[in-house]
Amino acid sequence: METVEIDIRGQLCPATLLVALKEINARASLLRRGAVKLCFLIDNRDATGTIPESASNMGYAVNVAKQQEGWYRIEVAARL
Amino acid sequence: MEQTRPHQNADLLRENDGLRKKHAAAMQYIRRKVDQLLTVMGTSPLRPEELDDNTLIELDPISIISDSFMQVLHHLKETNEQLRVAHEEITAIFDSAGMGILVIDRDMRILALNRKIKEQFGIDRKITDGMCCRDLLCKKDVEAECPARKAIESGASVERVMDLNGLHFDVVATPIRDKSGIITQVVLVYMDLTERIRAQEDLRRSEERYRDLFENSTDLIQVLNADGTIRYVNQAWRESLGYGPDEVASMSIFDIIHPDCKDCGPEFKSVVCGHKGGRFETLFLTKARETIIVEGNVSPMMEHGAFVGTRGIFRDITLRKQAEIAVIAEREQLAVTLRSIGDGVITTDISSNVVLINKVAEHLTGWTQDAARGMNIREVFSIKSEKTGEDTACPIECVLRTGAPCELEESAVLIARDGRRHLITDSVAPIRDKDSVVTGAVLVFRDITDRKRLEDRIIKSEKIESLGVLAGGIAHDFNNLLNTIIANIDIAARFDRPDSEAQKSLARAQKASTKAKELTQQLLTFSKGGAPVKKLAAIADLIRDTADFGTRGTNVRCDYALPEDLWSAEIDEGQISQVIQNLVLNAVQAMPQGGTISISARNIEVGRAAFTALGEGRYVVIAVRDHGHGIPPENLSRIFEPYFTTKDTGSGLGLATTYSIVKKHDGMIDVESSVGGGTTFTVYLPASLAAAVHTGLPAEPLPRREISGRILVMDDDALVLETAGVLLEMLGYQADFASDGDEALEKYREALRSGASYSAVIMDLTIPGGKGGRSTIRHLLEIDPLAKAIVSSGYSTDAVMANYARHGFAGIVVKPYTIDDLDAELQRVLGNK
To answer: What SS3 state is found at B735?
Structure first.
């Protein structure tokens, strides 16, 4: 499975969410097929709540991992 | 730069201003809608500084959110579909579940229930809204027991076993919360345990039965692990080995296998280790270190093809073993007893085949136990009649035929394997088993060869003694008659002329009478009256003198073997001399062509246990052996009988007298003879330890003196009295007579009183039916201590005659006596006044 890393650190929410949703939307069919996995690197703490909830409502599996440097890594992929 | 008009500029400015306002309003609108959409998406509105209008337009958030909503809607649709499927699944599960399921609300009103619970509770009516579970199911009003209530109260699942509608249920009540956490419903699951409980009950009962069998078995049951440690054992096992229930858990089978059990050790170990199973015997050691013997079997236990241990069942056979040992010991003792019995014992089976033969029987038959076993009794025990020599009926066969004890009619001769012959008596009895069925016979027999010989001797001796009494009686009377005849011949001869013809007749009569006298003396000696007058004597001299005298004038000579140290014996020399004389005479007569008589003597000592007619003690043995024609066996047993003779000139009294004399000396005489091989007489006389004393010469007869006086003669025989009277008168005496002791004493007393006392009294020793001299003398001496009494009897060797002085007599005349005998004794008695 291909992993596409999208670095949106430095952006604020809700722009962060919008950027994330745009990226998800652009690859919706690939994601649903399980051909690709998106990995967002963010440093906006609010986005750690909004991105996973939105992606989850959209039917994706989301995993949030806090990195030591103070930013987050949010993985979005198809639900098993 | 482009020129513009002022009014145009104003319009433009206004228009621009209006456009700016519209644009701003439009942007405002967009921003509001974007914020609205963002809020729907669950995020915060955009901050104006975050995106400028151009960037916002460029980003096109509405489009983004719209696309995202598309996906949200798609996802919701999928989720709804999944929920629908799930619901159907749950409904299917709900209805097809093997357990009753009930859903109620907080007020116990039924919300749902599945098919199973309807079956369980027999519900067939329609469930209406608001129906309470209590009315339908438990029909109980015990709130405390209600698991649903408990679940609502506790907020957790509650499990409870309940008896409902005649069934056992395991009821689990689980509370259901709404999203705010408030319990709104309870799901109750009813699991019907009735079958399970019944199965458990059955199992328990079954287990109980097996446990009962296991625990109450009197056999020792054990189940071991593969390494020999104990998994479990039953009560009998524990009790037999003395361990408590708690102790066995840590034990191993090797704690109880007896270390001495050589046979079973490795065997048992291999059994325990599962290499082999089977039945065997072993020794166990109890806690108290006592050994018990067990018998049983062990078999391996397999689980999934692997050996996991053994099971074993044993039985304590210690008592049985002890009993077996006792039986063996008893059998051994019986065998020892049987072998030690002094009689021969043979047992046979029902077919007359030898089973057992004891030591004595082995010796007598010549068959060993090993050789005899299984042989027919007739081969081992071959008997013939003693009299006829014919085979006799086998008593064993008789017993087996009749089932009753049998005995030989008389003694029989047993022919041993090597031909030896034993005279035996036997008895046979049947052997019966516990049901009294004859299974064989036991034969007990005894060698009576020696006993029979002894018995024959006793019979012979009794016969001779009774003949002796008879002969003695006759001789006594005959002697009295002879006394009269001899005396009267004497008297007649004195009265007649010496040269007359009658004198010749008288002389012949006297000669015959003298022979008759000798014969009578011999008879009397043989008979009871002839008690020996014993003196200590040197036997060797007596033998030599007598034998030399006996062979004088014959062609026979004597060969002596008389040791110097021959013991002396208390004997009547005259009688023993007669014995030697008779034996020598017999030997001489047995060798008409002449020859040698071997005469030997020796000392023997007879022990207590000796099987002879002799008593215990020391004896002088005299053997007289000739080399003559011998005595045939049929005569041998009769030669000591009086009047038994094979010789034309024999009296038949010689050996009878010899026998009698030896017997009276407490001795024994034996004879061995074979036809053509000569005869040996053996005489046993009791020895004395004292040395023999040579008797002095007899005193010289005193010169004849003329003496007169009154003589009282006592005799029961009138002829004797009459003759004595004549003789006494001829000798110059005055005779008076008494027929018995009382009369004699009366006459003596009277004579004393009248002053004309008797010079002497001649008394017969024995008077049949009256008082004889033997008892009269005492009374006579009481009347007159100086009385002179002369004893007179035919029994010259009677004890009183032999020791007359000791009995109070002054003299003795042996009947029949001549006038000279009487004269001499009266001279001696009266002359010695």
So the answer is: strand
The residue among B289 and B550 whose pLDDT is bigger is B289
Distance CA B596, CA B593 (A): 10
**For B346-357, how does the pLDDT look when each residue is reduced to its tens digit (9 = 90+)?**
989 988 899 989
B51 close to A (CB below 8 A): yes
Q: Which residues of A touch B (CB under 8 A)?
A: 12-15, 17-18, 21-22, 24-25, 28, 46, 50, 53-54, 57-59
Among B603, B617, B595, B590, residue whose Cα is nearest residue B561: B603
Q: Kindly report each contact of residues B52-57 with a partner whose C-beta sits within 8 Å and lies 24 or more positions away, as own/partner.
A: B53/B27, B56/B27, B56/B30, B56/B31, B57/B30
CATH topology classification for B217-322: Beta-Lactamase (3.30.450)
Size of interface A-B (CB pairs under 8 A): 62
Q: B373 phi and psi, to 5 degrees?
A: -60, 130
Measured between beta carbons, the chain B residues lying within 8 angstroms of A17 are 38, 41, 43
Q: Could you say which of A13, A46, A58 has the minimum Cβ distance to residue B72?
A: A58
Domain ranges of chain A: 2-78
In terms of CA atoms, which chain A residue is nearest residue B46? A14
**Beta carbons of A25 and B64 less than 8 Å apart:** yes
Rounded to whole angstroms, the maximal C-alpha distance in chain A is 33
Q: Which two tokens stand for residue B784?
A: 């007159």
Angle separating helix axes B61-96 and A47-57, nearest 10 degrees: 60
Candidates 3.40.47.10, 3.30.110.40, 3.30.930.10, 1.10.730.10; CATH matching A2-78: 3.30.110.40
CB contact under 8 A, A15 and B74: no
* Helix, strand, coil in percent for chain A, rounding step 5: 35, 35, 30
- Please give the Cα distance from B40 to B550 (Å, whole number): 182
Kindly list the domain boundaries of chain B, sorted by start residue.
Answer: 1-95, 97-198, 217-322, 341-447, 531-688, 710-831
CB-nearest partner of B46 from A14, A21, A54: A14
The residue count of chain A comes to: 80
- Locus of tokens 């006793």: B458
Q: From the CA of B19, how many Å to the nearest CA of chain A?
A: 28
Q: What is the DSSP string of B80-125?
A: HHHHHHHHHHHHHHHHH-SSEEEEEETT-BEEEE-HHHHHHHT--S
- For an interface test with A, the pick among B30, B38, B41 (most A C-beta atoms closer than 10 Å) comes out as B41
Q: Touching check for B83 and chain A: CB below 8 Å? A: no
Which chain A residue lies closest to B43 (C-alpha atoms)?
A50
Q: Which CATH class is domain B531-688?
A: alpha beta
**Cβ-based neighbours of B7, under 8 Å, separated by 6 or more:** none
Q: Report residue B527 CA to chain centroid gap.
A: 55
Integer Cα distance of B423 and B205 in angstroms? 81
Any chain A CB within 8 A of the CB of B30? no
Q: What is the pLDDT of residues B507-557, one digit of tens each?
A: 888 888 877 877 777 676 666 445 666 777 788 888 888 888 778 778 888
- pLDDT tens digits, B742-794: 999 999 999 989 888 899 999 988 887 778 888 899 999 998 888 899 998 87
Strands B406-407 and B421-432: antiparallel
Distances (CA, A) of B753 to B625, B714, B736, B830: 65, 20, 16, 21
Identify the bridge partners of residue B443 per DSSP, sorted by sequence position: B346, B428
Helix (H, G, I), strand (E, B) or coil at B270: helix
Average pLDDT over chain B, rounded to an integer: 83
Q: Which chain B residue has its CA at the smallest distance from A49's CA? A: B43
Residue of B68, B69, B76, B81 to mutate, interface with A, max A Cβ within 10 Å: B68
ipTM summary value:
0.92
Tokens representing residue B210 in the block? 């097996």
